[in-house]
Design a protein that fits this description.
With 162 residues, the protein is an alpha+beta fold. The chain contains 3 helices and 5 strands, in the order βααββαββ.
Length: 162
């Protein structure tokens, strides 16, 4: 009796996916929910230290801005985290077409420093409009958060949309 050889089955990988997306109801709890989701994802990707700390601060600032920009507290805020090529991209989407504005907060003001922090810590950040809202994104990478030397232009991840 002859037997036929069977092709070797492709082994399934257990590598974590390079992106994770979440949606949260707007409101005062939204930044905390986004930070928890980010911390959980960073653990999956084995990211810690300064990069993780900076990412947590940035996502908190971006989500807070998104919640404040929306007219309705019930409107959802979307977050997406992408890990690719040694770079971490944070995306926050809201339904407002109001663009974020970097301002100089006075010493005694409690608000107004969010985008200054984003600009200082991120290797790059920007806004993508889509007609129904916007996505504000920030990237962290290089040898340390805030390192603007990073990889050569064109070697980082492509812009991603939610």
């Amino acid at each position: 009796m002859s037997t036929r050889a069977r092709p070797v089955a492709t082994r399934l990988t257990t590598d974590p996916l390079p992106a994770a997306a979440h949606s949260f109801p707007g409101g005062r709890r939204c930044p905390g929910q986004a930070r928890r989701a980010l911390r959980q994802q960073l653990r999956v990707w084995c990211i810690s230290g300064e990069l993780a700390d900076s990412a947590e601060l940035l996502v908190s600032e971006l989500v807070t801005n998104a919640v404040r920009a929306q007219a309705s507290a019930a409107a959802e805020v979307g977050v997406r985290f992408v890990w690719s090529g040694g770079r971490l991209r944070l995306e926050v989407r809201d339904a407002s077409d109001e663009l974020p504005v970097m301002s100089e907060a006075k010493e005694d003001e409690e608000c107004g420093r969010g985008l200054v922090l984003v600009d200082a810590l991120a290797s790059g950040w920007g806004v993508d409009r889509d007609g129904t809202g916007k996505t504000v994104w920030a990237e962290l990478g290089g040898s340390a958060a805030g390192d603007t030397s990073g990889p050569a232009p064109g070697t980082g991840p492509e812009p991603l949309n939610l």
